[in-house]
Specification:
Order of helices and strands: EEHEHEEEEHEEEEEHH
Oligomer: single chain
Largest sheet: 7 strands, mixed
Bound molecules: guanosine-5'-monophosphate, magnesium ion
Number of helices: 5
Shape: globular
Distance between the termini: 6 Å
Strand content: 25-35%
């Protein structure tokens, strides 16, 4: 079993409150438009499921997938959709494009361009769970975000993964990284150190 050094950043209750605030800020941006909510698969699914249940009924849901991360902890250059929404859900519609994190901005830039230019969306509004402006590499902003972090930390939980794991954590945690930016695992002998840093019950979930 591998355990990772980590720090709890937002607990489930804090995430819930942040989503309430985000939904309140989005409602006026959506108005009475015919909206199609499109999360970026798969990290945004968890956030999107919670967010759309706070928005007015009647919106349509569809999905897009753009892979920029692979197993690495920093993004690669190219972002091309390999799963696209149904054209009738996008053409002429107001799309609410959702992702877990707006980081370098490449994923959202590519997704927005694709939806507007290739699929004919009338308008794209961007909502993200987390805005990380420090790592922005292309000029793009979210229309609304739930939380903003000014430091560069590698986050997991609430949909965010490291090597496919930890998406199902109900809280958001930052994995401690080494000098190469890679998450640091902990020897079993060091386990007590992890437990001291965070609640033991939550630390025990960050193992694979
Ligand atoms: P961007 O294209 O804006 O650089 O990256 C956005 C994508 O990178 C997000 O959809 C997310 O999957 C991934 N990403 C960015 N930062 C993090 C992070 O701190 N943790 C994890 N797990 N994924 C991240
Ligand atoms: Mg993603």
């Amino acid at each position: 079993m591998i355990r990772y050094r980590h720090r709890i950043v937002l607990r489930a209750q804090e995430l819930s409150e942040a989503l309430d605030g985000l939904a309140d800020r989005l409602k006026p941006l959506i108005g009475n438009d015919e909206v199609t909510a499109i999360p970026v698969l798969g990290g945004a699914m968890f956030f999107a499921a919670d967010l759309v249940r706070r928005l007015p009924s009647g919106l349509v849901m569809d999905f897009i997938r753009i892979q920029t991360y692979g197993d690495a902890t920093s993004p690669q250059q190219e972002a091309k959709p390999d799963w696209v929404p149904n054209p009738e859900n996008v053409k002429g519609k107001h799309v609410l494009l959702m992702d877990d994190i707006l980081d370098t901005g490449r994923t959202m830039t590519a997704a927005r361009k694709f939806l507007l230019e290739e699929m004919g969306a009338a308008k794209v509004t961007i909502a993200v769970l987390i805005d990380k402006p420090v790592r922005r590499a292309v000029p793009i902003n979210a229309d609304a975000f739930a939380v903003q972090f000014d430091d560069d930390q590698f986050l997991v939980g609430f949909g965010l993964d490291y090597r496919g794991r930890f998406r199902n954590l109900p809280f958001l945690a930052a994995l401690e990284t080494d000098i190469d930016g890679l998450p640091m695992s902990v020897d079993v002998a060091e386990e007590s150190a992890v437990s001291e840093e965070s609640k033991a019950s939550e630390a025990s979930e960050l193992a694979q």
